[in-house]
Each structure stands twice: as structure tokens, then as C-alpha cells.
Amino acid sequence: MNSIVFLIMRRMRLPILTLVVVYAISVLGMILIPGQDADGNPWRMDLFHAFYFVSFMSTTIGFGEIPHAFTDGQRLWVTFSLYLSVISWLYAIGTILTLLQDRMFQKAIVESLFAHRVRRMREPFYLVCGYGETGQALVRSFTRRGRHVVVLDSNENKINQIHLQNLPDYVPALAANAKRPSILKAAGLPQRCCLAVLAVTDDNDTNLKIAITSKLLHPSIPVIARSDAKETEGNMASFGTDFIVDPFDTFSQYLGKALRTPCLYLLSRWLGGEEGAVLEEPLYPPRDGHWLVCGYGRFGKAVVQRFELEKLKTVVIEAKPEATGEPPGRSVHGIGTEADTLIQAGVREAVGIVAGTDDDTNNLSIVMTARELRRDIFVILRQNNNYNGELIRAVNADMVMHPSAIVAEKIRILAVSPMLAEFFALAAYKDNAWGCELVSRLSGMVSGHVPVIKELTLDKQQAPALLQLLEEGEVVTLGELLCDPWDRERRLPCMVLLMHREGEKVMVPESDLVMRPGDRLLLSGARHGISRFHWNLAHNVALDYVRSGESRPQGSLWRSLRQLRGAKAR
Fold first, then answer.
1. Residue 110 lies in a domain
2. Residue 268: which of 438, 382, 145 has the closest Cα?
3. Considering the chain, what is the average pLDDT of its residues?
4. pTM for the complete prediction?
5. Which residue, among 365, 337, 354, has the nearest Cα to 290 in the 3D structure?
6. Residue 112: inside a domain, yes or no?
């Protein structure tokens, strides 16, 4: 608001001064020039009448001469004042119209309205800085889950896209540089309702500045930032950034998990997928041969390092080794789109190929050429842009590395389901057989789609019926809560993946686990299964039924009638 007032005063200063001077001269002339009353006696207009007359003369014209008919001298002065005031008003109005069309003034108005809307928000929201492919995926996911979002992006065209998309919730958005502390403040950074700051622009320096500003202005707020440069990641970490997501390192970890423990990899894809998506098929990357890696940039280096950790041989194909650095082991100069280059790298003996350049057209060409030379080769394809998604799907690669999608998925899990991120971290220490068993159990609960993930806390808000029993000293087990309230002999199609209890973490707890107040549960399964589990927690009748098999009346009247009926039966 201060900037708006400053712009108005700066632009309107000269027109306002001009109007003041014109009015002062006109009023002064009307006072000084003598007139005559109806009897021919001389008189002079006082200050009030002079100002009154000049005011309506300048705007309406035609109210008559007051309080007496003017002399010729007065009429001459009125004529002069009339044209002078009209010209000054035209000048002032023109300046106002020019101000309204000024880009800086319009931007100040938009920023002021944006800040006002954000200040009025009373429900928790996420502050998303950057509305590229990653930001769009996050906003869609959050709004579909009923979460509120505020968006910043320096590109006005991207911000305009928000109004064209069919989002289920209104999203306040502003086209501004998120590196400016004043913009982050206007976007709600200091507010209690701000749950987290997500720095997901395509520029590492911008993400770094956002992370630093957020931690300095609001140290307690969680900050999740995207970065694909080691130097930037170190700088972010030094300022206390809570989570730093590198798409290339993240995919490298996925690849290592797929090579070592395919079932754990499949479990992470199922649980971490977008709700409603089709379940992925099991994946088994080959280990009994060498791999071709086309492109030795940031992605290629991360993949080669992973293959080295897994003790797999690689041959790198790079067109500009002087820019990327010499890769370890054997390398071939070229892009990989040419058959001769692939043959020289040993594509006919290779078990897999990584098309990892920063150009989607080259990556597609690499895959097609490699398959012509060896049809059964395992393909890992890098996708750089969303609009090439249909072409990428048509190639039917075994694994697709889309940096924006990977970052969006990782941030969504960290922001919305932090217990799921903890579960993945703990599951990394399990063996493949454990993962296969869990995948088998989940596949029997869901019908070909990604399972629903839900976090629950056993408190009076989310589990009032259970809390009442526990306070009365009753013992309730997890197995009882997992019974169907419609038919207690049937088990609900959901399971508890992780339980928190006073610092203790239990993965996939057994059915005989005794529940306690304050327990936090991470559930996964079919939507109706989780809904009925919550029903057991919240309703006394359902909880009594799944524990005893009887539907006990809850009201005093119904209990009295039941006792009376029992007495008559005896």
C-alpha cells in the first residue's frame, strides 16, 4: 500500500499543484474584482462565495451569477478562469489515466491485493515458489487433497496459467521475484498458517536465496528446496534447509534399489505414487553385463556412480568430454544417435542403455537406434519436458527419469506424508523378501491402483470412541480395529505401515499390538478400508461390535429398554 501511495503522489504532484494554483488565482480574482448589487452599490465577493462559485464553475458551468449579476470585469475574469480550470482538469485527468495504465502502478495494485488475500487466509497453506513443471504437479496434487497453496513465479505467463487450469480450489498467485524478502512476506511467510516453503524454481541460485531468506525470517518453518548442484546443496544445508531434493541423486537411489531389491523398489513406487494412478509392474534391471550411458552430464555422472557402487561395468558415450570431464573406465566420443557409435560402444553385448542427454529428441533417437541393434536391451530414458510425454510413453521405456516429476513426488511425500518418508528410510534396511511380502499383502487390498495413504493420531479429535475406552482401562488391539464394522469376521483392506509411540517406531506392527493414547499411525490400503478403520475409532457402536460381536445400545433410554426386555425374557 505504501508503494501505491508513493506512486500516486509522485505522478499526481504536478497536476495537483497546478489545480491548486489555478483555483487560488481564480478565487483571488473573484475577491479582488469589484461588483455591483441590484441597487448599483459596490460590493466585493467574500472568500466563501468566491471559492463556491469557482468550484462549480470549473466542473458544471451554468449555475448562474451569485449573489448578484456580475459586472463586465467579473465576467471577463470568469471567462479566463473557466478555460484555465478546464485545461488544468484535462491535464490532471490525463495524468490519472496514464497512471492507471502504468505497468508499475498496476503491479503495485496486484501485489497489494495478493498480500491482502493471503493475510485473510485462516487455514494452513503451502508456499510454492516456482510454477514450472514441478510446481504445477505439486499444486495439482495439493489442491486435489484439499490442501491450500500460495504460488510465486517470476514468469507472468506461468501465473496466468493458474486461472486457466481446472483446479478444485482457488490459488492466490503472484508474478514476482521470490528472491525478494518483501515478496515472501507478502506471500505469507511470517504467518502461522504457512506450513512449509517449497523452493522449486529451475534456478539453483533462486532456490538458494529463497531457502536462506525463509530460514532467516522464519527459522521454525520447514523449507524444502530443489537443487541439482553440489555447491548449492552445501550452501543450503549450512543455513538449515530441512530437505534438499536433487532429482539426479534421487533417481540414482531409485535405480540402486531396483538393482538390489526390486520388491522394495516396487513398494516405494506403489506407496509414493499419485493417488488413483495405475500400479506399476515389477521391474528387474539386469546385472549380468555392461551398460551404455549416453550423456555424461549431471544425470550421467549420478548414474555412473551408482553403477560403480553396484559393481556394474559401464561404457560412456559423450559428445563433449572436454566440457563434462573424462568419465571413469571406457568411453566413446559421440551422441549415441548413430548406429556406428553404439556398435563401437558394444551395444550388441550390452544388457542396458541409459539415454540421458538433456535433449528429448536425441534420447528418443538413441533408444530407437539401440533397439534396432538389440531388441531386448533394457532402456532407461530421461524425459526433459512435459510436452514430450506422449512420445516418451510411445517408446515404452523400462524406466523413465523425469526430473520435475521426481522432485514433485519427493516433495509431496515430505510435505504431506512425512511418516511415509520415514517409512521409506526405515525400509531401506530391510531385505528384498520383506518387501515382496509387503507388496503381496498390498496387492490383495487394492484393485490395480495406487493405495491410499493416511496418517492418524489416536486423540480425541480423530479417535474419540477409542480414547474413551482406553481411559476406562479397556485393552484394545490393532487387530480389533482392523475388523470390518459391517462384518467383524472380515478384515479391512488396509494395513498399518508405521506406528510412532513416544519416540519408538514400529514398522508393520502385529495385530496383537495394544493401542495407547497418542499413538500415530501410517495406514495404507483401499479408500473404503481406511474410511471404515476411522469409523471404528470414532463411533462407540462400531468399536463395541468389532470387539465383542454385539451392537450395544449407547443411549440411556435404549439401555433401559434392553435391560427391561432381558428381564421379561427371564
1. no
2. 438
3. 90
4. 0.81
5. 354
6. no
